Amino acid sequence: SVEKYYAFEIPDVPAKSEYLEVKYSAECPRLPQDLKGQTFSHVFGTNTSSLELLLMSRKIKGPCWLEIKNPQPSNQSVSWCKVEAMAMKPGLVNVVKDLSPPPPLVVMSFSMKTTQNPKTHQNEVVAVAALIHQKFPLDKAPPQPPFQTHFCVVSKPNDCIFPYDFKEASKKKNAKIEIAATERTLLGFFLAKIHKIDPDVVVGHNIYGFDLEVLLQRINVCKVPHWSKIGRLRRSNMPKLGGRGGFAERNAACGRMICDVEISAKELIRCKSYHLSELVRQILKTERITVLPEEIRNMYSDSPRLMFMLENTWTDAKFILQIMCELNVLPLALQITNISGNVMSRTMMGGRSERNEFLLLHAFHEKDYIVPDKQVFKKAPQKLVDEDEDFEDQNKSKIGKKKAAYAGGLVLDPKVGFYDKFILLLDFNSLYPSIIQEFNICFTTVQRLSSEAQKRAEVDEEEEIPELPDPSLEMGVLPKEIRKLVERRRQVKQLMKQPDLNPDLYLQYDIRQKALKLTANSMYGCLGFSYSRFYAKPLAALVTHKGREILMHTKEMVQKMNLEVIYGDTDSIMINTNSTNLDEVFKLGNKIKSEVNKLYKLLEIDIDGVFKSLLLLKKKKYAALTVEPTGDGKYITKQELKGLDIVRRDWCDLAKETGNYIIGQILSDQPRDIIVENIQRRLIEIGENVINGQIPVNQFEINKALTKDPQDYPDKKSLPHVHVAMWINSQGGRKVKAGDTVSYIICQDGSDLSASQRAYAPEQLQKQDSLTIDTQYYLSQQIHPVVARICEPIEGIDSVLIATWLGLDPSQFRVHHHYHKDEENDALVGGPAQLTDEEKYRDCERFKFCCLRCGTENIYDNVFDGSGRFIEPSLQRCSKTECEEPPFNYVVQMSNKLLLDIRRYLGKYYNGWLICEEPTCRNRTRRLPLSFSRSGPVCQACRKAVLRPEYSDKDLYTQLCFYRYIFDMDYAMDKVITEDDRGNICIQHLKEKPIKTYVQLLILKRHFLSGRK
């Protein structure tokens, strides 16, 4: 028996206990996970893999030099390696402690061309090009050029022949091209080359999604021997291909590390899509020429075309290798793996949760803790981005999704508007990792509920926040590991500051600090990600709870310093300084910083930036000019965008460019009327250019990512990107899958289908003459909403005006009022104190009454008319100067008209019409949907926004208050009329009859406003 500790989520397991440790041969089947007996209640470690046991027991943390004692020769070769040896037991494997540099690796980058067989509809491989470097270093800058040798092999489709002069043409170009008569010969040659070169790393783009599966399928169909040479493990039976997650394909390459630059780029950079062409454009700053699968057969018509196709394949292999070098994928993966203690091949597959798991597994194993078992989930998580990226987003309310497991980061209500004075942005450094350290939050320190208490909390649907640990407790494993990462990064950054540092060493340090940063920042994610092995909802809830508390306390502290907090989100706050002096702003920032930092030992707030001007639209959406000081009191500005439509990939480039221009105008120092004039001119010009076909086609492309495989969507037709993805997959060539980005264009095809069903791939638009770009869709559904949302806080521009300038029918657009909860509350307490009566009631419908003598319509919006000596009660005379009948003579008729108007507004309110808050969606309904988000009922038409009352209780209340305002003579005499004007009101105007009329109308109004029936 052994003494072990336990600190995880299975309730009622003792913190420390005697355990029976059982060891048995790996040839025997594993025990059931839910096994129980008379003398034991739980079995731990039933599904722990042999690899994990080896790494933990021998403390192997990533690629390192190993000493193998008493190696035994292998009786039978189990791999394709030149040397094979066996260690008879794990104790004979030891980590070498000296810091020898890692060995150089053999790296092979490849690209291939496929075409679809018209009879079988299967992809056939027609060309493969590969670049090889025999000694690729991991501790220096990438070599230039990044390859030493290359090879290229070409075959032909069954229904094509090689051009008669192709061999001569390839000799003239001095190209090393192997000509294979059949696809089987090509694949055999490729496997033989892999076996001879024996690459440690195989590099490609979309290897897991396409290349490996197609290669293995074709090797299988063509019955090419020794298929397992694609990896290093000798096997005879081909794995079952095409399964979910590409498990079989990954397994087939066992023994070689696969570097898929598409996966690496998704983790390291942000792109609108991760297609090879886009990566080449963004990372290598050059343009890639594409050869489509359907064009390949035509390439065999003559030698120059075929040579062009092979050069293109070779160039793609070079681009892939260059992208890997530019992103430093291999050295970064090595550093991350050494930090986390997992396996480098798994690190390069992406997904941070496994790295965090291994880091914690090593830490807990060293302290004799029993670790949580790996859970097998029947349904894989739908979320494709890294689980812990933007972890606060996991808890945001998503429309149509179930309630969050626990409350996430606090987002303060923004004070929407345009600010032209300096705005100070303060940000907590690594808030959640810092909270874990500050309050010693760990599995080992925080007391969780017992099983009975857990059941009660689930029944009551209450979020139980555990108590903070006792400050006297020893530091827990989790905060200790995070502190190690933070301190190691600090040390590495100090080393980077050394003078005359070798460039290779500087690059190595930079890669190491980046690896430490990526690991430390993702540590919190394992607590809140439900598919993580170390998922601990109570701990995650406690961390976010403290985060909300700290942000709120910081806001209150800043407000006590007589400063205005205009917005805050999770770990940052924005402060309106009302200053135009940059030095003063930094002094103020440092003062706030020192006051806040006094309260904590490890938590630190810092100045994250200063905005010269800020357009704050709503939560998580703003545009600003960031100030970057250059010295001597001068600075330069840089535009920063957060959460706006123009930074999202699912809007076309034309809409983004238009939005960018408008933001640039709004943030500029120009007068307001010049800005409005420039926006008007630009929108008119864009509207005309779109209609006249003067905009390049690629500006209309919309990009949207697939969250699951196209065939798994239930409503394929209504989702344009899925509809197009299905078409792309039907054409052969590269398959699009979950996580890929699909480009499409909305076209006019002569049908009456909805816009979402008229989506086509760009190549379809090029080939089919019957298709034309749907200009009305792009103007009304792409450009208009982007512009309308940006211009919402700007006086003088509204949806109707924008529609007019774009050449759209303005009657189809309404002036859109966004719903704000704080406005609703303001209305119920009489409105914001700073608003004048005119501002408060400017949108209210005026009271109208027709003179019974002359028939003229009189409009009333105040108690008094005129000014100076000519001021008099508005009910004193008819607006038609010739009519001498005073309206107050018709008090009964006026009362009836007022009563009818009030009942009309009450009826409008109780009709309960709801409208979608999304300007592009015109859905109007009285049916309350069943699906709700935290913001309100979800619109069933667009599924993107929530429904708001067409006529809200705020609108009704303000209208009733307006009627009181226009008939309340006492209020008008006291608050509205100035001292000078009061003396000018003729005594005859204040006779009993007009006053009585006002009083009567006011009583009628108050009858409704007081809530009496």
From TrEMBL:
One Gene Ontology term, aspect cellular component: alpha DNA polymerase:primase complex
Q: Where is the DNA-directed DNA polymerase family B multifunctional domain?
A: 343-794
| The organism's place on the tree of life at top rank | Eukaryota
The places in or outside the cell where this protein is found are:
Nucleus
- Example GO biological process term? lagging strand elongation
A Pfam family per the record: DNA_pol_B_exo1
The record's listing under SMART domains reads: POLBc
Specify whether Membrane is a keyword of the entry. no
Kindly state which reaction or reactions the protein catalyses. Answer: DNA(n) + a 2'-deoxyribonucleoside 5'-triphosphate = DNA(n+1) + diphosphate
Per the annotation, which location comes first and is thus the protein's main one? Answer: nucleus
Entry's family note: Belongs to the DNA polymerase type-B family.
**What's the protein name?**
DNA polymerase
